[in-house]
Amino acid sequence: METISKKKLMVIIGAGASIELGMPSVNEVDVLFSKWAKEGYLLANDDEKTLYCYLRDEVNRHYSLNPKIGLRKKTNFEELLYVILQLSAALGDDNYKLPMNAFWGLKKLPKINSYKGEKFVDGNHLRHLCSHLVDKLTIEFRERCKSSKEKHQENFSEFEKFINSLNDDFDVAFITLNYDDLITQACPELFTGFNENTGSFDASAVYERSDWGLIYHLHGSVHFDMQGEPLNMHAIKWNKDLHSTFSGNSFGRNTQDTSEGIDMPTSVIVAGYGKSNQIQRVPFRTYYSRIDEIATRADAFLFMGYGFNDFHLNNSLHSIRCGDIKRPVVIIDWASDDQDPMQFRHDDWSYNLCRTIPVNASEMATERYKHTAPDISELKSRGEFEVSSNPDYPLSIWYGGFIDACKNYTKIRAELK
Fold first, then answer.
1. SS3 labels along the chain
2. Which end of the chain is more exposed for a tag (fewer CB within 10 A), N or C?
């Protein structure tokens, strides 16, 4: 009996695919950081405000001064982590590593009530703050992953059916930017590159693998554990048991040096800007080295909750529109009912989407009205897509959110075929 080969599907997963399953949103992480920064980083002149909140408010104040009102923006936790590291480099004991110190002067930072009493903020305080927040974030994700299936039973059931349906109908390569293990909970047999018995990472197995049925945690995982190896005390292994004691603790480790002079935490996750430097460690580097090949071999692409803000990944997807093959692209996202359609949308998400997946926004319409800009609320109520009317650039965008898309798997599958 002849075996019918499945289409190869590359799935890129961002934070938006996990929120309805209990993982924190970008805004919630900011709230958590504000709380965690109270542990040793309260301002000396305001015991209700933390150093993290002070830096966030100053960046937002700066952005609010932009005379072009439409271009004003607000910062987020990832940007702030990088700001903290930049300031740490500028204020470090060895501040001759940072070339920009030759040109700029920093405003005076407030004093904090540290564990050792009232102190002026220096580079070490900032570096420790960044590591502290990253460590706490990793722990928070582990705790939420332990209870997601139980606390969000109905949504998890829909999610589980969706993931396994994808694996039944396609040959799938999951590239996830999320730290959670929700996909491996739904489909535990996916290849990760880690040895199931020893937990050690086998880079050669990743390089030699031609089969798909895999998941690569490009920015780290709740299962990553810096157990170390004889020649590398920071080596990452896979720890199956989320209830066990993990040895991440970037706070107590040396940082990763960069040629730019901005040192990065040595962590089991990649957080904040400067990701192209942070992913130079194994297994991140090994995973990243395979992205171009996977994108080139894929017959279709599915983006789930991805914000198109990770340029190192976007640049690896350049082959989506290469060649004569018209490969379908489906994007699962959530939008408010009053969101502008692509033709009239002017924000980072739409700009970065069009750069990553070349498409003419003015050609986006609906299946039934090929030359009419859609009403997003109507698309959501009908369970329909905003689609490209140009057959050379097939693109379908779902705005009803991830779990709603899971409940409409047959529609997603039809767009991918």
1. CCCCCCCEEEEEECHHHCHHHCCCCHHHHHHHHHHHCCCCCEECCEEEEEHHHHHHHHHHHHHHCCCCHHHCCCCCHHHHHHHHHHHHHHCCCCHHHCHHHHCCCCCCCCEEEECCEEEECCHHHHHHHHHHHHHHHHHHHHHHHHHHHHHCHHHHHHHHHHHHHHHHHCEEEEEECCCCCHHHHHCCCCECCECCCCCCECHHHHHHCCCCCEEEECCECCCEECCCECCECCCCEECCCCCCCCCCCHHHCCCECCCCCCCECCCCECCCCCHHHHCCCCCHHHHHHCHHHHHHHCCEEEEECCCCCCHHHHHHHHHHHCCCCCCCEEEECECCCCCCCHHHCCCHHHHHHHHHCCCCHHHEECCCCCCCCCCHHHHHHHCCCEEECCCCCCEEEECECHHHHHHCHHHHHHHHC
2. N
Q: Cβ atoms within 10 A of the Cβ of 165, count? A: 15
Beta carbons of 366 and 346 less than 8 angstroms apart: no
**94-113 residue pLDDT tens:** 667 788 888 888 888 999 99
Residue 220 — left, alpha, or beta (φ > 0 → left; ψ -120 to 50 → alpha)? left
Strands 214-217 and 171-176 come out as parallel
| Distance of alpha carbon 240 from alpha carbon 19, whole angstroms | 23
* pTM > 0.85: yes
Q: How many CB atoms lie within 10 A of CB 358?
A: 13
Exposed e or buried b for every residue in 380-390, given b needs 16+ CB within 10 A? beeebbbbbbb
Give the whole-angstrom CA distance, residue 225 versus residue 237.
5
Judge contact between 226 and 217, C-beta under 8 A. Answer: no
| Max CA pair span of the chain | 77
Per residue in 215-272, pLDDT tens? 999 999 999 999 999 889 999 999 999 999 999 889 989 899 898 889 999 999 999 9
The amino acid at residue 50 is T
